[in-house]
Design brief:
2 domains; glucose metabolism; binds NADPH dihydro-nicotinamide-adenine-dinucleotide phosphate; glucose-6-phosphate dehydrogenase activity; alpha/beta; binds 6-O-phosphono-beta-D-glucopyranose; 15 helices; Dihydrodipicolinate Reductase, domain 2; oxidoreductase; Glucose-6-phosphate 1-dehydrogenase
């Protein structure tokens, strides 16, 4: 059973010297918890997270299933279903802490995500000193490429937040020397055997830990996992697989994917990524709530009138139409990114910061949600427009990969409810759209009005019942948190206006904010599952959205057209008004 296994920790020698590590995490008892003692963290705690020892436990899912097997480590070794080796196995293999190595294989390395996000994030981790001393990165895809060509391709995209820093060029060269490429088919055992051979050579007899990042279209996930697990999983250390979304299109296809993956992997080897959970402000949500006395008592139906989760992009789906048309905005953004944030926002206080305690609470929220009613949903699709300046923007259906009569929504707004004691009757509004007037992601918490407000008569014409307190957590861009309060305008009179108590990250912290993929990759390397989606969370998320999606599709619901670059369909306002709410981003 993997619960008793301890994770080998890495040598710290390559990490202690970097001055750039964010100082907000540290260790508790060598376990997998995050400390809240960020105020005392020193730069030397740089990537100390990597030194944590694993304290894994069997996981009882909310539906009662237990996700780890009872097989012994040796049995698991034999089965090639390794997670983490036991001390005996490590001893047998002659591995010590300083002798471990991590091999990261980016499957689909020729693709957009690999170039745009994964390699830059790995480089940033390397630059920060967060990768272990011994590591190798392999790109794997069908495209023919040499190591040199991969390095050239990757070097063009390492223009992440790090690139203006001291020694960046030098570090980049060092990093690229540790990147290699293997050409292969995703369903070829033979090609994965060849990859395994190369990985072994680089691992040089050290205890090997292997991470596979599936950056490929979902229809080939299972083939790749099958080959990686049977022909290229580690025989001495852990083997983990990061799986990118989409995890299916509905409950049925998602369950089928989970079942197929579980033929080859244990649940604790599967890291389902939702990169919104890796964003700094989303990570901070629990800190804000559970470490500040002033917020937690207000976090309920008693004080909160509604909560809004807003995602907007100021560009369309050009170039991704083929993918997008099959999924639509509800599957692309709401069912995962926004719902995950909602669950974190609304969960009860977890027993601890351990992954399973947090995920247990999130699942409870998801399972307490009321089925979404079609009349509580508005869908839209963008149409082409020409600005006054003469710039023309395309319609969604102008994309050659999108059928001309496509009804796929590029915008959706919905009102959701959590039927539990804390949130009974509170509307949780979601809004997500492409090709809108701005790019932003935020959480808005609108509080109830002050009963019998003494100052209503002095408000200078402002309706204080409308200008209630609002807490805004701006996930991106210009990360920040602000609280709207009513304040007296200075002077001899008594006039009120609404002002902001404002925490703008760029003004308060000199440090850049790491990309979500950096945090998540590091977590996967460390075996920290807190920010990854467990299978029962995924099931609950699909159980909520599948009936709605089915109804929309069966009824061929026609999306309301909105101009490219606008604020989206008017219907979203009627929806909010129906629930006595005004969108906070207006
Ligand atoms: P790509 O379409 O770029 O595919 C990645 C690689 O997979 C390609 O370079 C290609 O490599 C191989 N590939 C593509 N199509 C097929 C096919 N039909 N059969 C076999 N191999 C194929 O995907 P992305 O890089 O954009 O995304 C990767 C994964 O991440 C997907 O699951 C996507 O949904 C997800 N994702 C992507 C985001 C993004 O911003 N791009 C954001 C969030 C999630 P080769 O031909 O060399 O084998
Ligand atoms: C992805 C969606 O998951 O998130 C994309 O598939 C979307 O459609 C992207 O553009 C947004 O991510 P970010 O981090 O740029 O806000």
């Amino acid at each position: 059973m993997s619960s008793s296994l301890s994770r080998p920790s890495y040598s710290s020698s390559s990490r202690t010297s970097s001055p750039f590590f964010p100082n907000h995490s540290s260790l508790i008892n060598g376990g997998t918890r995050r400390s809240l003692s960020f105020l005392s963290a020193s730069p030397q705690e740089l990537c100390l997270r990597s030194k944590r020892k694993s304290v894994q436990s069997s996981v009882v899912l909310q539906d009662g299933a237990v996700v780890v097997t009872n097989s012994s480590p040796i049995e698991k070794l034999k089965d090639g279903l390794l997670s983490v080796p036991s001390q005996e196995v490590v001893a047998e293999l002659g591995g010590g802490e300083h002798e471990s190595t991590v091999s990261i294989t980016v499957v689909g390395a020729s693709g957009d995500l690999a170039k745009k996000k994964i390699f830059p994030a790995l480089f940033a981790l390397y630059y920060e000193g967060c990768l272990p001393e011994h590591f190798t990165i392999y790109g794997y895809a069908r495209s023919k490429m040499t190591d040199g060509e991969l390095r050239h391709m990757v070097s063009k995209t390492l223009t992440c937040r790090i690139d203006k820093r001291a020694n960046c060029g030098e570090k980049m060269e060092e990093f690229l020397k540790r990147c290699f490429y293997h050409t292969g088919q995703y369903d070829s055992q033979e090609h994965f055997v060849a990859l395994n051979k190369k990985l072994k050579e680089h691992e040089g007899g050290r205890l090997s830990n292997r991470l596979f990042y599936l950056s490929i279209p979902p229809n080939i996930f299972v083939d790749a996992v099958k080959c990686a697990s049977s022909s290229a999983s580690s025989l001495s250390g852990w083997t983990r697989v990061i799986v990118e979304k989409p995890f299916g299109r509905d409950s049925k296809t998602s369950a089928a994917l989970t079942n197929s993956l579980k033929h080859y992997l244990e649940e604790d080897q599967i890291f389902r990524i939702d990169h919104y959970l890796g964003k700094e402000l989303v990570e901070n949500l629990s800190v804000l709530r559970f470490s500040n006395l002033i917020f937690e008592p207000l976090w309920s139906r008693q004080y909160i009138q509604n909560v809004q989760f807003i995602f907007s992009e100021d560009f369309g789906t050009e170039g991704r139409g083929g993918y997008f048309d099959h999924y639509g905005i509800i599957r692309d953004i709401m069912q995962n990114h926004l719902l995950q944030i909602l669950a974190l926002f609304a969960m009860e206080t977890p027993v601890s910061l351990d992954a399973e305690d947090i995920r247990n609470e999130k699942v409870k929220v998801l399972r307490s949600m009321r089925p979404i009613q079609l009349e509580d949903v508005v869908i839209g699709q963008y149409k082409g427009t020409t600005t006054k300046g003469g710039v023309t923007y395309p319609s969604y259906t102008d994309d050659k990969t999108v059928p001309k009569d496509s009804l796929t929504p590029t915008f959706a707004a919905a009102a959701l409810f959590i039927d539990n004691a804390r949130w009974d009757g509170v509307p949780f509004l979601m809004k997500a759209g492409k090709a809108l007037h701005t790019r932003s992601a935020e959480i808005r918490v609108q509080f109830r009005h002050v009963p019998g407000n003494l100052y209503n008569r002095n408000s200078g014409g402002t309706n204080l019942d409308r200008t209630t307190n609002e807490l805004v957590i701006r996930v991106q861009p210009d990360e920040g948190i602000y609280l709207k309060i009513n304040n007296k305008v200075p002077g001899l009179g008594m006039r009120l206006d609404q002002s902001h108590l404002n925490l703008l990250y760029s003004a308060r912290y000199s440090k850049e904010i790491p990309d979500a993929y950096e945090r998540l990759l590091l977590d996967a390397i460390e075996g920290e599952r807190r920010l990854f989606i467990r299978s029962d969370e995924l099931d609950a998320a699909w159980a909520l959205f599948t009936p709605l999606l089915k109804e929309i599709e069966e009824k061929k619901m026609i999306p309301e057209l909105y101009p490219y670059g606008s604020r989206g369909p008017v219907g979203a306002h009627y929806l909010a008004a129906k629930h006595n709410v005004q969108w906070g981003d207006f």
